[in-house]
User: Fold this.
Amino acid sequence: MKLAVIIAAGGKSTRYAQEGIPGCSKLDEELGGRPVLQRTVELFCKRDDVDLIVVAGPAEGYDDFVLRHGDKLGLMGVRVCEGGKTHRWETVRNALAEIDGSFTHIAVHDAARPCTPIELIDRMFEAAQKHDAVVPGIDVYDTLKRASADAQVDEDIDPLDAILGDAGKNNVTVRAITGSVDRAGLVAVQTPQVFEAALLRRSYEQDDLSSTDDAGLIERLGEAVVVVEGDPRNIKITRGIDLKVAKAVLGTTGNSHRAAHKRF
Assistant:
């Protein structure tokens, strides 16, 4: 098996930025003295079973991305390319163009998953030797409800508001529950997802590439996808609290107000 790994780093960190978190992208945030992106790449760069790593960065601000990360990634033997402008599939498709036909398997991993346990990666690569499309997943234990898209704010009307404005007001946003979801058989899917290279390339030849993950494109072809036991530690950093959880998972301490790439 000759394996290439695509690190999808083309996202805009929109939800992360909405929380008013200072600094750049979540991938630039410090995680044990190194940027989140570098932590993620390190999961694969020292493995003997990985022959190539391609990091696909954001199309918007790509030159700045290369200035921040290009030198360090180059020293790690990583190839960097420009990702998509709008969709994740554009990012993966651009990265696929950097991988030649000698590779038999391609793994795709979220750049914002720096806590992936080594034993999970081992399981994925072992399963990929027997199955053409493999994803990690964890069983869903929480009760699942479907909520309406429309949200409203519960506001307590207080005569003092006219004088004090919104000071001290505690508004709660609510949405109506429209039904329950049967969780039997449901799994929360993670990355890395590993595919036989020709199959992944064929899935990207389809006219409709809209998807939330690459396995979805394989499923659209009617091909089988198998799930391997994931790991709850394999969190994806999406909001500020996720970064705190990632630090706890990795046992890192300290907190700098400067993005990690600016402190070296």
Remarks:
- The chain has nine helices and twelve strands.
- The two ends are 37 Å apart (CA to CA).
